[in-house]
Structure formats: C-alpha cells, structure tokens
Amino acid sequence: MKDISQAMVDDSSESILAFKKQNELIIKQNTYLKQLHKELKGKSCDVIQTAERAFQAVVIFTQHEGGSGVCISEDGLILTCAHCVYDVDDEKDEINIRTTGIGINKTILFTSGDLCHTECIAWDPIRDCALLKIISSSSRTKVFQFISILKSTAKSHLLLCIGQPGRDDLESKTLKKTNYPLVYTSLGRFRGYLHGGKKLQNNSEIGQLKHNCWTYWGHSGAPLITQQGKLFGLHSSWDDKTTMRHGIPLVAIENFLKDFKNLEKN
Questions:
Q1: Which of 151, 113, 154 is nearest to 254 (CA)?
Q2: 32: which of 75, 180, 183, 184 lies 20 to 30 Å off by Cα?
C-alpha cells in the first residue's frame, strides 16, 4: 500500500487535523482502554479481552464533523453510516440517490493510530449504510484488525458501543468545546425495534434499532458489539424527544452487503 501522506496533499487543513487526532490516539490509547475496562467492571476476563480486540477494529473519521465505523474484513473493508460519507439533500440528490456517495474519499484512524485513506465503494442512504475500502495506510500493513458480523437471527441484549464523540458542544448557545475523549466506550442494552420491526430496511430518517448505550454527535457509524465480540448493528441517530438512541439493524446491514456482492458479480 502507498504511504498515507501521498493521498492527503490535497487538503492541508484536513491533514493537520488528521495528524493531530493520530498523535492523540497514540498518546492516550491506554487511557481509552482504561475507560473501556471501567465500563466493563465486574465482567469476566473473556468479555474484557473480547472487547479489547473489538476496540482495535473500530475506526474514527478525521473530518471535523466526526463520524465512526468498524473494520469487517482483514483486507480493510470499513462499514459505517451512509450519512457519515455524504449526507443526502433529498431535492438535490434525488436523481442519483444510490450513487452520490460512491467514489468519495475519507481519511480514517484505527484506535491503534494507523492513519488510512479510503474510498467509498458502496453507499445506500435508505438503509443508511456505506462501505469504504482502505487504499493506503500509514503502517503500510495489508492485514487489518476486524470483527465478524453476528447472524441476524441471533439476539443480544447487552451491547458495547465504541465511537467518537464530537468535540463541539452542539447543546451550548455559545461556541464551546466538549471535554469528551477522542474514543469513548459505553455499555448499554438492545431495546427492540421501531414499528414492531416491520421497517428494518428503511433507516433514512432514524435508525430502526433501539439501544441505550451513551452516544454523542460524531458517534454515527459506531459499532454496537455483543459480549462475544460480534457486530450487532451500527449506531446512527437519536430521538431528541425520548433520548432513545437508534441504529442500523443487522438485517439491513446483511442485505446491504449482499446487494454489494451481487453488484460486484455482475
């Protein structure tokens, strides 16, 4: 793989932010892991070790707006929310609704500090899923830490959410920064589905999966992980009236990936 610096010369301001976040991740990685251990206090050693491995597969976007994701294959396929790649304007993007996000480049960071340049190769704003392919890496590795996807028929009630809380305090009336860490781990539970689970493929307005892991703006795309270290869904949104967190359910993720594979074959 090419060196990441070759792929970032087009935007110096984004490069500065990316390297700043990379430096913080490297310096504070142990602090973030301690916070993970604190969240899992009382859990078995197996659960903690599984969470640590899953932590290594989580990625954060270096863009100012934030965003999170997770690696789902050793060759560097990153799953995230479609709106983290490109947020749809319904009137503007109506004609190219299924292709607008494809080809967009994003820079991401693994929690290890590995800085990667990616290209969007699949994008679905209805399911709110996107797939990125790593095309260059600061570590020059060709094998990446990843987590497997749980089968949609399986159930899990206890969930771990690992992602990037935004640094801007959007609840403040003045320009103010939050004190949240770059990567935050929260423990919560699966709380069922909207509409009785009848609209699981449509997450364009709000995620159909409900959970109560703590999240903030910037967490979109963060993996919801089981105690066994499997991907159960992606955090995507929240209801400001109920404060319930929402996400992309497994069945929508499975069908999104199935459609992508079918397109590749054809």
A1: 151
A2: 75
Whether residue 129 contacts residue 207, with contact meaning beta carbons closer than 8 Å, is answered with no
Closest CA to 59 of 35, 85, 40, 86: 85
Long-range contacts formed by 237-243: CB under 8 A, 24+ apart? 237/203, 237/206, 237/207, 239/206
Number of H helices, E strands in the chain: 4, 12
Quote the CA–CA distance of 156 and 154 in Å, as a whole number: 7
Domains plus CATH for the chain?
4-46+58-146 (2.40.10.10), 158-256 (2.40.10.10)
Tokens 């480049």 correspond to what residue?
Answer: 105
> pTM of the predicted model, to two decimals?
0.90
CB atoms within 10 A of CB 164: 30
Answer whether 113's CB lies under 8 Å from 25's CB. Answer: yes
Mean pLDDT of 19-30: 93
Alpha helices in the chain (DSSP H): 12-39, 45-55, 82-85, 250-265
Give the tens place of pLDDT for each residue, 1-15: 434 444 444 556 778
Rounded to whole angstroms, what are the CA distances from 196 to 18, 208, 244?
Answer: 41, 9, 16
